[in-house]
Structures are given as structure tokens and as C-alpha cells.
Write a structure and sequence with these properties.
By secondary structure, this protein is mainly beta. Helix content is about 10%, strand content about 35%. The strands form seven sheets. Strands 1, 3, 4, 6, 9 and 13 form a six-stranded antiparallel beta sheet that branches. Helix 1 runs parallel beside helix 2 and helix 1 crosses helix 5. The radius of gyration is 28 Å and the shape is globular. About 30% of the residues are buried.
Length: about 475
Amino acid sequence: MTQKNLISLILFICFLCNNATAQTKGYRLDFNSNDWTPSYSHPNFTVKNKDGILNINAQAVGSDYENFVGYFPKTDLSANPFVYVKIKTQYPVDFELRLLDKANKETNDDNPKIAVLPAAEYKWITFDYTNKFKQSWPTNDTVNSREIVKLAIILNGGGPDFTGWINIDEIIFGDSNLVKLPYDPIVYQPKVNQAGYFIKAPKIAIIPSDKTLNFQIIEKTTKTPVFSGTTSASSKWQYSEESVVKADFSELEQEGHYYLLAKGLKASYDFAISDTILNGLFSFFKKGRNPLNYCFVTGFGTQSPQHIHHRISSADGVIEPVPGLIVNGPHNDDLSFCTYPTTIPAFTYLDDECSAPTNEVAININSALVYSLNALKSIYSENILSPVKKKTSEEKIALYPNPNDGTFEIAVPEIFKNGQWKLLNTNGNQMAQGVLSSGAKQEISVHGIHAGIYLLIFDKGENQRRMKVNIY
């Protein structure tokens, strides 16, 4: 494999890298049935469902956070934490939509709100609840994003008071396979190579847009533009069902840290231009910057798979899965095993044991991870990965024979002598224990246990070592 292909493979793996057996697919509240009514409404609100439109008339609301609340079917927003509202207002208003779970916990801590201006036509606004399923009143708590059942609407929360009408045509919670979600640039941002770009290499960013855009590259510290350009024409990217354009800034060859701005979109994540960008690759890899904000390697990043399709992780009695395993990740090739929140390939992922297509730790993809990281460490002299201290001959532990019938001989280094040993099964249960002698060798006999793989742990002070033992 050439070095160029190796790097491409590594960057692809980096792109992949935050228990119900079925998840609801999202919900569309379109008011066409004319039977939706609030379960609670402040007296200063008059809310009517008429001709497929929710008519809201408000009289001096806002300063006391007056609201109205209504139910909808339980919806899982854990994978798609967005709510889309098609709205029209008589006067400018700060529109806030809070979400409540089955336990009546409410997203009132840093809940998103959007300024809506009067317009002749309805417009879509998008609420992004990423990392916002939190309650700060009456107690600090977490809102269960998998069991959202109610909405609460507040106008000009905290004042000044609002008087006027607002009409809502429909509300979409999460992603529904039955609904073509509206395009709204508020939640989109340019997609850059977050590992960085080599100084002399091509530099391309992908921007969600259905039209040509002007863009700028901004120096991160000084926030000054250092490059400007125009994107390519728009084309369809089949994997995310997005219309996208390409921003080419290959001419920028000044080493530094930057981000990309395009009108109407979020700023991109920051990125580096440098010939040493791979030095910090493993740190980047763990962060899990991708459409689902997951690091698809267990035990790494701020959000990683917890319910992988892996028998050992399911049966070992430990809540967390075995760390260091990469799962298949999102795709929509086979959706017969579970119910998924969407069929868009880049978002079709379910953190559940039932999801063998997306959450299995198959050997073919884990071999690529192991090969790539070790090849990267071998090729580059810099400390890309945390250095591993090689054991000297004095530190090595000898165990013979292995496999064995429950009787075996060990030789431990000086640091473990007079320490402890214990034998655990794959469920983490202790099967035997003892004291390490001060001699050069020691025989251990464990009988009356089933044949299988066991973990032998040596422990003394701050030093600990583990070995697999195969007893037949």
C-alpha cells in the first residue's frame, strides 16, 4: 500500500470517529386533522387549530415566560436532535420551543430560541438541540431525548411583552422517512478536512448549498480573511441527499490555523495548514467529528458506542463495551434488523445490539484500524500515538504451560514479588487468588473451574499486569 493510499484510509477512518431495541422515526405535526389542542394554555394565549393551521393569538405575553403546552406521540430525538417549524408572524418575535420528556423534564437550560420577522410567506426555522437536552429548573437534570412527548411554546421569554398573531403550518420533530425535511442553512456548515491540509497539497471543502457561493478563509486568532473565492456549481451528493458545492483554496500555502465562512451558514470547524498535521491525528480521531458526533471506536471520544453487537461485551458483566473496537458505522445497506431513525446513509446508525449492520465490531474493519494506526506510527518519527514503553527482560512475566489443565508455573519480575494474584473469568468474577512468592518461580494450581479463557492479574502497589490463561 502506498503512503498516499494509507493516509487516505486513515483519514476515512478518522471521519467515522457520541438501549432501546427500536427507535421511533420522528414525527410530523401538520394540524390537518384539526383535532390538536394544547393540554395547557396560559389565559393570555388563544390557540386554535383551523384549516390545517395552528393559529396563536397572544396578548401581552413574554415577561413572565407565559406558555402553552401540547402532546404528540413519543418521539426519539437522540440521533436527530432537530425540530423544524414552518411559521409566519404578524410582528417580530423571539420564538422558543421547549421539549418535555415522559417524566415532564423540560429543555429549559440554554434552550434554543429564534428571532422570527414578519413575512408574506411561511418560512422554515430550525431548532438544534444538540447537547441541549438539559433542565436547570426546578432542578438540574437531563431530559430523555429518546422519549420526547410534549412541546412548550414561549414568545419573547423574559420580555418585552408580545401582542399579535403567529401561524404555524407544521412542525417536524427529528427525521421522518415520510417527510422530505426542509433545507435550512442554520444547521449546516462547510465540511473541511479537520485533520488538516498539507501546505502544498490540494485543499477542498464541501459546502451544503443548492447554489454557487462566495466564501472566505479566516485566520483563527486574528479573525482576518486571508483568502476568498467562489465555489463550484451545485451537485447532488447521494450519501447525504444534500446539494453541495466545492470550495477550492489550494492556493493558500501559509502555515496556520483557519476556518471557512460562507454566507448564511455556520462557520466550519477550525483546521490547520501544515506539513506536521498528522502529528496530532490520533487526538483528532478520538473526537468523533462527523454528522452524528460519534467516535465509532469504543472507549474513546465524548460519545462512543455503548451497546455494540459483540457477544463478549454483552456477556462480561461490565456496563461499558470492550474498549478499542471500531464498529461498522452508519450506512443503509440492510435495515432488516432494527428500526432506524432515518434511511439517509450518513445518518443511518443505531447504538443497539440488534443493529448488526451498523454496530458490529467485524474483524475486517478492525484490522484496517489496527493496520493504519500501526503503519502511521511506523512511518512517522513524531509521537503521533502515545508511546508504549517496551518491557525489558527483567520486567517480563513468564507463564508455562499455556494452555494448561489448571496447574502452571509463573516467574514474575522483582516489582511483583510478595504481591497478589487473582484469576477472573470473562464475566469479571474472581475464581481464585493468592500471594506471589519472593522466589524466582512459583507454581499455581486452580481446580474445580470450567475450561475456558481466564484473566490472571498480578498486583503490587501501583504496578499491575494482566495475562490470558487458557485452561482446558
